[in-house]
């Protein structure tokens, strides 16, 4: 009797271990094994097709709208929650008449599933399902949320709009810079950026918004007035450069793809060996980590090469148009237009004394920083 109990326990334990290994393998392969987040739909398994997760054509655009509106800055979580309710967005657990809560909206804005990752048992996995939120947009939202979490209620701007709301961090302490209007003795009002000074004692002084705009106009604007003919030449040359880069990197991308596929097969073979008891857990984890690190390095190389192929002719035309007319946008009286353009072109904005330190996003960096721009405009 005791022998039978021992055998039964051994069998159950072995079965449990196999289930755990199987679940881990599915996670490693990027499979989500639960209810999909808001904006996605679970497709049940059938006799001929496996279970899947697809983008919800009704809810996904609404979720994306929440990210886009919050990323602009000047909006509280309650504002975004009200917007979600106006759009009729409900969570998976809500009935038709039940409104979505503020906590649920916050969870949506913080959920990395929308950019290709999920976390289980403290470990991060990359899933293989389609994404509809851009990584850059997601990180902007996290930065704005972090700044708001630390900011006191007096920093709420009401209906007042500022160009740099949610865009700039303090170069001294890393806090989010806030915006305010001051009326001087000459009765004129001036907009300033000032540090929250919530993380530590900070020496950053307020910066006049007009001076930063003047700096950007000087550093971003092309060094001449661009005629239609010049703009045509710029588009042609940028397109030519991109085409040449595609040809040069095609072979490299093909080789990388072959290597990545080979590593995937190695991972599958390694896991089968582990399941069959051909290697212990320590050896399995060591070899698996080694293969994954090599695969991650190759994937980063591939991502860099794929950046070259992301611009279509239509996008290229829009990029050249925007780059050639940045000066006009910066002088526009419409605050939201200025902010949208700067959101599009700039990243990693932080103060440096009374100046702004920033990076130019791809692919604008190729156009605004190329040394051949003067030659193209002839």
Task: List the topology elements.
Blueprint: H1 2-28, E1 40-43, E2 52-55, H2 60-71, H3 77-86, H4 102-110, E3 117-120, E4 123-126, H5 135-150, E5 177-183, E6 189-195, E7 207-208, H6 209-220, H7 228-275, H8 281-306, H9 313-324, H10 326-330, H11 335-345, E8 346-352, E9 355-360, H12 364-368, H13 373-376
Antiparallel strand pairs: 1-2, 3-4, 5-6, 6-7, 8-9
Structure notes:
By secondary structure, the protein is mainly α. It folds into 4 domains: 1-25; 31-146, Putative Large Serine Recombinase, Chain B, Domain 2 (Hect, E3 ligase catalytic domain fold); 158-226 and 325-376, no CATH class; 231-315. The protein has helices at residues 2-28, 60-71, 77-86, 102-110, 135-150, 209-220, 228-275, 281-306, 313-324, 326-330, 335-345, 364-368, 373-376, and strands spanning 40-43, 52-55, 117-120, 123-126, 177-183, 189-195, 207-208, 346-352, 355-360. Helix 7 (228-275) runs antiparallel to helix 8 and helix 7 (228-275) packs across helix 9. The longest helix is centred in the middle third of the chain and has 48 residues, at 228-275. The protein starts with a helix and ends with a helix. Mean pLDDT is 75; it is low at 2-9, 11-15, 149-159 and 370-378.
């Amino acid at each position: 009797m005791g022998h039978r109990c021992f055998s039964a326990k051994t069998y159950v334990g072995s079965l449990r271990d196999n289930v755990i290994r199987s679940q881990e393998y599915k996670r490693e392969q990027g499979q989500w094994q639960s209810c999909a987040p808001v904006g996605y739909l679970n497709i049940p398994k059938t006799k001929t097709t496996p279970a899947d997760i697809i983008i919800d054509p009704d809810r996904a655009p609404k979720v994306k709208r929440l990210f886009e509106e919050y990323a602009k800055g000047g909006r509280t979580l309650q504002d975004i929650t009200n917007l979600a309710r106006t759009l009729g967005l409900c969570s998976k657990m809500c009935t038709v008449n039940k409104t979505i809560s503020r906590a649920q909206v916050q969870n949506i804005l913080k959920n990395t599933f929308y950019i290709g990752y999920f976390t289980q048992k403290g470990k991060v996995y990359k899933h293989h399902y389609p994404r509809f939120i851009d990584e850059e947009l997601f990180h902007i939202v996290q930065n704005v949320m972090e700044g708001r979490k630390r900011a006191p209620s007096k920093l709420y701007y009401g209906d007042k709009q500022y160009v740099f709301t949610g865009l700039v961090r303090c170069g001294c302490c890393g806090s989010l810079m806030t915006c305010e209007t001051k009326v001087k003795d000459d009765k004129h009002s001036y907009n300033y950026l000032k540090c929250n000074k919530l993380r530590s004692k900070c020496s950053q002084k307020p910066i006049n918004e007009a001076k930063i705009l003047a700096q950007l106009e000087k550093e971003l604007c092309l060094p001449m007035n661009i005629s239609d003919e010049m703009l045509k030449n710029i588009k042609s040359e940028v397109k030519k450069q991109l085409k040449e880069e595609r040809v040069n990197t095609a072979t490299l991308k093909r080789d990388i793809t072959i290597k990545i596929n080979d590593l995937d097969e190695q991972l599958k073979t390694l896991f089968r060996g582990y399941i069959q008891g051909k290697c212990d857990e320590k050896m399995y984890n060591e070899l698996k980590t080694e293969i994954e690190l090599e695969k991650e390095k190759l994937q980063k190389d591939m991502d860099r090469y794929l950046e070259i192929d992301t611009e279509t002719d239509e996008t290229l035309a829009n990029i050249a148009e925007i780059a050639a007319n940045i000066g006009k946008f910066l002088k526009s009286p419409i605050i939201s237009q200025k902010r949208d353009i700067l959101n599009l072109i700039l990243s990693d904005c932080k103060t440096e004394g009374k100046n702004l330190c920033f990076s130019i996003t791809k692919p604008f960096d190729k156009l605004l920083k190329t040394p051949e721009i003067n030659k193209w405009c002839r």
